[in-house]
Fold each of these.
Amino acid sequence: MTRSLVHTCVRVLDVDASLVFYRRLGFEERGRLNFESAYNVYLGLPGGGDALELTVNVGQEEPYALGTGYNHIAVTVEDLPALLEELAAAGIEPEKPAFHPGGREDLPLIAFVQDPDGYRIELIDGGRFDTPQDGPHPSTTA
């Protein structure tokens, strides 16, 4: 059986604010799916599939509790410094200046921003990212 990851879903309070935010990151609206008590807005990056689903629950008035399990969605970008300047002009600031994760110069610059609902988005410089192939973490015995 062939399997593939289709999309990530996040629940949003203000779909218009979320669409403005994700469009600034390069996402395009691809379609919508309506249900009785909710609707989904599907987004994707140019050349890719519908990777992000924004779910709007009709009648939800309070911000969602994000919990401690969620961490971030990662998106590659061609020119991180230029994008951060563009986002700053729109009032979107990174959590901290761009950095190499773990101080590892062999990894690309990254920065984290938050969408209108507080979901963290990791921006990875360089247009693509191949997952590093480090061995087991030193704290493990495997």
Amino acid sequence: MSTDLKVVAQQPDKELPTYLAAENLGKATFKLALPAIGEMLLQTMLGFADMAMVGSLGAASIAAVGLSDMPMMTATSVFAAISVGTTALIARAIGAGKPAEANSIAKQSLIISVLMAFVFTTLGLIVARSIIVLMGAEPEVIPLSTGYFKTVCLGLPFMIITIIMSGVLRGSGDTKTPMYINGMSNIINIIGNFFMIFQSRVWDFTLFGKQISLFIPGAGLGVQGAAISTTFSRSLAGVIILCLLLKGNVGVKINFKEKFRIDLVIIKRIFNIGIPAAIEQFLMRFGQLLYSRVVASLGTVMFAAHRITLTAESISFNVGFGFALAATTLVGQYLGAERPDLAEKSGFSSVKMGAAFMATVGIFFFFWPQIFLRIFTNDPQILDNAVWCLRIVALSQPFLAGVMGFAGGLRGAGDTRRVLLVTMIGIWGVRLSLAYLFAIVLGYGLIGAWVAMTIDLIIRGSLLFFRFKSGHWKYIKV
């Protein structure tokens, strides 16, 4: 990726697709964001049910899943970053009216997906226990967490395909199909949990005055049952999205009947955007992993409180994610159509919409935190700590919207290097250092760690705002 100091020509008279017309900017933002929001909210609600099921098994089970999820999220951040490169390039191609180029980018992205899947799955299975130990798991949690991690790794290839191919669809402006596929996957995961986690049991209830006993079969596998259900649902999602792209039932088609070859030019373009994004996401996730390691050192109960607070916060976070996706797609498509003015407006529009919602949810987090937290546990010790954490992070919700939305817009423009720099400053320079200082050195514990997180979000949101406002991203060639 290189920058060109020559100003990109703005062509206000250039004919745009109807949905990209200036007067339809707000409508286009909602059209892209709402399916993604629906997908993430469904995922959140089902995540609540998932955590509630696991949470009923006790603090050790909550910690086992949480300790496994953090390194998994660190790894998958790399795939999501490659998806960013794919989304940005396809958005530019679609905006420029070049569908054949978009198809070629999608094909090369699939090749990358398969190669990455093989490498990361193999590594995950080999080093599973070592990762869990490094995460600071207590002795009774290690076997539970290791077994969960290994099983989830088996579904990693399909998860990688789903993440990167979803980026293909979103770059083309199709956010509905990923919503349907991932929503279906999450529903299947919950149904699977219902039968795999718990023992067979008899449910007695009254219907129309009659006493009815219903036998519900169950495998009784506990945490391992949750892992099996997760792996199956992710695998199914990967197969479905791949079939749709191969058949051409969506806006982009991958055709392997044509001459097969690896296009190094396209792959280089994807990596020019994706590698800085991958480094950024890896450093962010690895930093979050180390942050979780600091929290885990406070004990199983504190980590359980930390985990359920993060899950509760995802109500707000996932809506912001939907508007960030809209910013990524619209900024890329407007730049492809040579309308940097509308690209800037679309970025600010997405952030404003996201911030309005997240600030509103933040009010509920602050004044009525137990409404969200009691979904997962009634343990008073866990709740007492989680309540204060949710109140603290409520203050940062508008800044979190800025972090997500402005970063999404910059990624859509291909300005992933600057997002990388801001992430390094925030996560490594602010969050980790302050978390260790507040939680460990000064002895404020979990509350100190969440204060550090909030300060990080405020600083990153401000830095990304100034970068997007500067407009330098408009002149980046991809």
Amino acid sequence: MHLHCYSWTGPGDDQRQEGERRPLHPAFLASALPPMRTCDWLLKPRTRIESSPATVADALGWLTGRYQAVQSSFHLPEDEASIGLDFRLKLAQEALTGGVDVQWGIWLRAGRFITAGVVCCSPNRHAAYACPARR
């Protein structure tokens, strides 16, 4: 197994365009929107891969970077503080070590949203997709 990292930041309301977020929709591949299922990131073009960390620890570092990059823009920082980065990282480490994908989503100011995901590849527990980096 290896890992691929993906993220999207944009108007949160755009996520209502669920058709584009499903693999059978004709616009899925070209759409910048995150897929409905985390594993479906693997169907997106390889150019959407932001990182392919060598280890779970490296993936956690990537997630930390995405979190810290938008931390000053959290819509409800007090709510996010009740979860916190350390707790998120603990759960992510457990999931990725067990071969389970991780997807974080956080509302930002001005109705924006960030989603950051680490997807297990070759194999993925939820779909038998080919590795996008090897297509």
Amino acid sequence: MSETSILILGGYGNTGRLLADYLLQETEVRLVIAGRSIEKARGMAAHLNLKFPGQRVTGLSIDASDQAGLRAAFSQVDMVVVAASTSAFVRQVATAALDARVDYLDVQYSTHKMAVLQAMAPRIEAAGCCFITDGGFHPGLPAALIRYIAPYFDRLESARVGSVIKLDWSGLNLGQATLVEFISEFMDFQMLAFCDGRWQQTGLVSMLKPVTMDFGREFGRQYTVPMFLEEMRAIPKLVPGLRETGFYVGGFNWFTDWIVSPLLMLVKVVPDRSLRPLARLFRWSLNTFSRPPYGTMLKVEAHGQEDGQAKAINLTLYHPDGYVFTAVPVVATLLQLLDGSARKPGLHLQAHIVEPRRLMRDLARLGIEISGIKENTNDHATL
């Protein structure tokens, strides 16, 4: 692990800087902070070298659209972590990683990205590279949480995972590219839930009759709608006997949820240039109408059988900072990859490649508040 070098593409962004900080804290890796701005990359590298010993960080200017430049940069490291809004250039980035024979992990939600990587999967495995996609907390954790909770039942019959994300959006430094990418995916996600033995489309009906979940704390009961994540597709096969499952995402605020979001979902096909005004509208609604309490939570509502009796477990994961909640699961995954316990050639989803109990212990150790099941360091869990 001490000899490993990792390039973080977007390393001075909101998520990238946290990934760098945690990796330097938890490991002895060397880091390359990369992005289009050499000033920001070098500035972040200097900041991290002051904070952590060993002068382990350098800054590099790199453009995700420049495949030759990517290949040259990747050939100097062992792994690339994509923490930038560059899903439009996933083919260039992934191809450069393959050419350099390095491992890869991305922190992006993108149907386009997923399709490109799935088409490249045979090449990835043949090259002996380990590619991990859909990193973060959602996608990234929901399917892992179901894998984690299933052994606590003789038969797990129902497992819903819900999220609530309440942020002070006006205080966040979100780039235009990030917003446009977010909007394009928001307009395209599928409202699918698994019930009666198959994945079913709920569509706009789910907005008129939303599923509610009680998130406790200051959030209370919130309405949610199904949001299909690729990592959830295999869960019914991985957990025999499961009759109902799905990921459900909570709302932002009343104006964004009931006025802006339906508009975005109705406007499915727009020219690329039209995404910018839509992104501005979305940003304005978040900045104007979002109110405290702030925080980020995932909750699993699980029901099943144990010893012939009905059993229920409510498992919650919480952190006040959504970016920390994104970065920590990625770092916990990288710890398993770096020591070789999780590394295997091919294309993998973060939620499927991790060992769930170790993941939960590391999440708790790195500051994610977990309620419902507590993992102890002696590997015994308590409800």
